[in-house]
Amino acid sequence: MDQVNSVVVHTSLDPYLTLQALADYSGLSQRTLRRKLRDPWNPLPHYVCGDRILVRVSAFDRWIEGFRVERKPVPEHLRASIERVREAALSLRLRPR
After folding, report:
1. What is the number of structural domains in the chain?
2. In a domain, 6, yes or no
C-alpha cells in the first residue's frame, strides 16, 4: 500500500460577493456601490442572479484600480516657496491675539 505524506489543495480565492460583503471588503457603503453599478461611464461589473447582485473580487479589484491617484512630487524649484508660506502661516497661528 502506498503512503501519502501530504495533500495539496488549491482553491481559487476569487469568490463572488454580495453587496454587503463587498461593502465590508472595500470599505465603501452599499449605497455607493449601488450607485457605481449604474455609473454610465465606468459601471462596476456585476452579475444579477434572481434578486441578488454579485461582484467577483478580481473584477472589483481591477475596476477600483482605475480610481487610483498617484501623487506627483513637488518640483524642486517650488519647495522653498512652499516652505516659506508654511512657516509664515505657522507664525501667524502662534501669535497671541
Report:
1. 1
2. no
